Amino acid sequence: MSIELVTDRIILRELEISDLENFHFLETDETILKYYGNYPKRNILETKDLLNFVIDQYKKFNTGRLAMIHKINNEYMGWCGIKYNEQQRHNYTHYYDLGYRLKPEFWGKGYATEASKACIQYGFDKLKLNKIHAIVNIENRQSINVIEKLGKFTKENFIENNCTKNWYSIINEHQGIRDEFENVNFNMLKHKFNIELMQ
Ligand SMILES: CC(C)(COP(=O)(O)OP(=O)(O)OC[C@H]1O[C@@H](n2cnc3c(N)ncnc32)[C@H](O)[C@@H]1OP(=O)(O)O)[C@@H](O)C(=O)NCCC(=O)NCCS
Fold first, then answer.
1. Which of 11, 31, 96, 183 has the smallest number of Cβ neighbours within 10 A?
2. Residue nearest to atom 5 of ligand 1 (CA)
């Protein structure tokens, strides 16, 4: 069974190779990538490798970036989801981060916040994560605005690629603080999870 989260207006489902064109747009559009610093310029084949990496995450960790599909017209709006990171970044290794990236025509409609709430709920209630992080360039007001609507994130600054960024962390209050490694045992958990989104 694959991961699927359903909110009032959005279906979040696993990315597929057939999403490549949409995914590539999100990987290359300059407006979308404005605050990403020296983000790699990918050609379509490199994007395909990245997409395969994302798809692989679902099997390995039962999480990853998910396609955001408009419930009414089936449009591909962007992606949102919790990724498991094995590489060190700032002071963290083996952590989960929330990310989102929407096509500009879907900005300013509350979709990023709606999808993010569902992903955090999935991370805490289904994956039983202790902590979720988010990394945002301090100049990215729209993204900071999303984080501020999601709950009690703590914040610390760090520098990466000559940009100052906020490293946000939110704790699963129902779970207590334990080591994140304890949660990396999801292989038996493949399931379909429908969310009635928190209002
Ligand atoms: C970051 C990004 C996802 C934010 O998207 P967004 O559309 O601004 O975020 P939201 O979903 O919170 O929607 C914002 C606004 O929609 C408005 N809105 C309109 N209709 C709404 C509705 N039905 N429900 C809720 N909000 C609604 C709200 O007024 C809200 O603004 P406010 O909180 O100031 O009142 C988007 O700018 C993006 O994809 N950027 C490029 C990629 C990027 O930077 N990603 C983040 C990297 S850290």
1. 31
2. 107
Task: Determine the Cα–Cα distance for residues 131 and 27; give it in Å rounded to an integer.
Answer: 27
- For residue 55, the enclosing domain spans 4-189
Q: What is the chain's Cα-based Rg?
A: 16
Exposure b/e, 115-126, CB count within 10 A at least 16 = b: bbbbbbbbbbeb
Q: Identify the residue whose C-alpha is closest to ligand 1 atom 34.
A: 145
- Give 149-158 pLDDT, tens digit per residue: 999 999 999 9
Closest residue to atom 2 of ligand 1, CA basis: 143
Q: To which residue do tokens 């709006």 refer? A: 77
The pTM of the full predicted model, rounded to 2 decimals, is 0.90
- The CATH number of the domain holding residue 84 is 3.40.630.30
